[in-house]
Amino acid sequence: MPVKNKLDLKSRLHIKSIFNAVMLLFNILIFLALVMATFADRISPEKGVMFAYASLLFPVFFTANIAFLLFWVVRLRRYLVLSLLGMLLSLSQFLVYFPMHKAHKELPAKTIKLLSYNVRGFNYVTHTEDAPNPTIKYILEQNADVICIQEFGWSKNDGYLDRKGILKAFKGYPYYRFTITVDSRWNFSGLACFSKYPIIASYKLPYKSKYNASAYYCIKIGDRKLDVINNHLESNKFTSDDISAYKKVIKDVSSENIERFNDIIIKKMDEAYKSRAKQARIVREAIENCEHDLIVCGDFNDGPLSYAYRKIKGDLSDAYVETGFGPGISYNENYFYFRIDHILHTPSLKAYKCKIDRIKLSDHFPISCYFEWE
């Protein structure tokens, strides 16, 4: 073989070796990030908020890990062990993030339906029979037995939705409880529960928040009692300026935009993550004190791989993970697309047809589920 060809071959082998080494380094980094995201729900944001952010990027890290697995199958099989280990470690969390179930075709004869919905104040649009409020119209058409609402509210000003209009609209639900968190000059806002069955007890859970809350209801259904906890955990409190800064970073990753993003968005998210961790522990205490079959629902402002979700869930079952298909995005605005609305329940209840309905009336999609007593 000529000397030149030998040198060319040696050079190509050297470049190939460097390329493989660089790819392996990236593979290691992705593996570590995936492990961090997989086990992020075990770490309270009060101890390490970076784990909370890692959980948001779980689908990115999982997809990248699969890509490396396929790459090494084709390229150099002895390096695929790391990606294979990453997939095995994270598979259970992937199925929480992306459950894969066929829909139940038929429901049992006796079920109760629960609907949970962050309605954004019904957009304060008035409701009449001739000109119904679109959000209220949708909720009534679902014919749920129990309705849990977050960001429930009415206006104090003429020409907007008021308390009287809401009560008239929900006249088919004779039992209700309101938990007011905001009482301003312009409006009331908070939580609400409407039920076709008697609500025999209720209270607000004891954590401090300016705008958010959790509430407990005990509902008597025939000769049974059902406990329900309706949640609206701490929100990030993004303003329109904050959202604008976030959009700028997505469109232009400049140092100026990133600096503003860190100063405003990240700071608020850090505080909110830590607040939700504290609130989740209080919700967990309430769950442990419940004496009946239980449903925990609402806007957690946190995904299914978060610390707050895991803390609240404990030994409960997730109705969407049990019966749903796909990521189940429930928040749908401002380039934030996550499943942050949940329905959890005790194993004594069997879930059917948990659905996140992609109806664009609020910045959240509603989530509903049918339940049968085992």
Number of helices: 10
By CATH, the superfamily of the largest domain comes out as Endonuclease/exonuclease/phosphatase
- Give the biggest beta sheet: 6 strands, mixed
What's the CATH topology name of the largest domain?
A: Deoxyribonuclease I, Chain A
Query: What structural category arises from helix and sheet content?
Result: alpha+beta
The beta-strand count equals: 14
Kindly, what is the distance between the CA atoms of the first and last residues, rounded to a whole number of angstroms?
78 Å
Q: Over the alpha carbons, how many angstroms does the gyration radius reach?
A: 24 Å
Q: Shape, please?
A: globular
Named at the architecture level, the CATH assignment of the largest domain is 4-Layer Sandwich
Note down, in words, how this protein is organized:
With 374 residues, the protein is an alpha+beta fold. Helices cover 41% and strands 25% of the residues. It contains ten helices and 14 strands. β1, α5 and β2 form a beta-alpha-beta unit. The protein is globular. The termini are far apart.
